[in-house]
Every structure is written in C-alpha cells, then in structure tokens.
C-alpha cells in the first residue's frame, strides 16, 4: 500500500512540474500514465479479492 501511495505522490509531482515548467509537458503525460496504471492495478486487485471461495 505504501508503494501505491508513493507512486501517486510521484505522479502528482511530475504533473505539477509538467504544468508549471514550459517545455516539460511530457512530465504531465507521464504522471497521467502512472495514475491510470495505478487505477487499473487497484481495480484488478480488488476484483480478484472478491472471488475467494468459501468452504
């Protein structure tokens, strides 16, 4: 969980730098890609945890 929060923090920082500094818009794009990848990872992880078989 700490790793996911760290990735989110990195994505936000890259996004802010990409918006503020002209010519570094690619950092904003990288930040958005990280957030999307993280959201997909969390969705897949939560989807798999609900399918446990009860005995």
Written description of the protein model:
Keywords: Membrane, Transmembrane, Transmembrane helix. This is DUF2207 domain-containing protein. It comes from Streptomyces kurssanovii. This protein is an all-alpha fold and 55 residues long. The protein has one domain. It contains 2 helices and no strands. Helix 1 packs antiparallel against helix 2. The longest helix is centred in the C-terminal third of the chain and has 25 residues. The relative contact order is 0.15. The model has no long low-confidence stretch (mean pLDDT 79).
Global mean pLDDT = 79
- The residue fraction in helices comes out at over 70%
What sort of overall outline do the alpha carbons produce when their principal axes are compared? elongated
Rg result: 15 Å
Strand content: under 5%
Number of strands: 0
Question: What is the count of structural domains?
Answer: 1
Give the number of helices: 2
N-to-C SSE string, H for helix and E for strand: HH
Fold topology:
Layout: H1 2-20, H2 25-49
Protein name: DUF2207 domain-containing protein
Organism: Streptomyces kurssanovii
Transmembrane segments: 25-44
Name its key features.
single chain, 55 residues, mainly alpha, 2 helices, 80% helix
Give the structure's gist in a few sentences.
80% of the residues lie in helices and 0% in strands. The protein contains 2 helices and no strands.
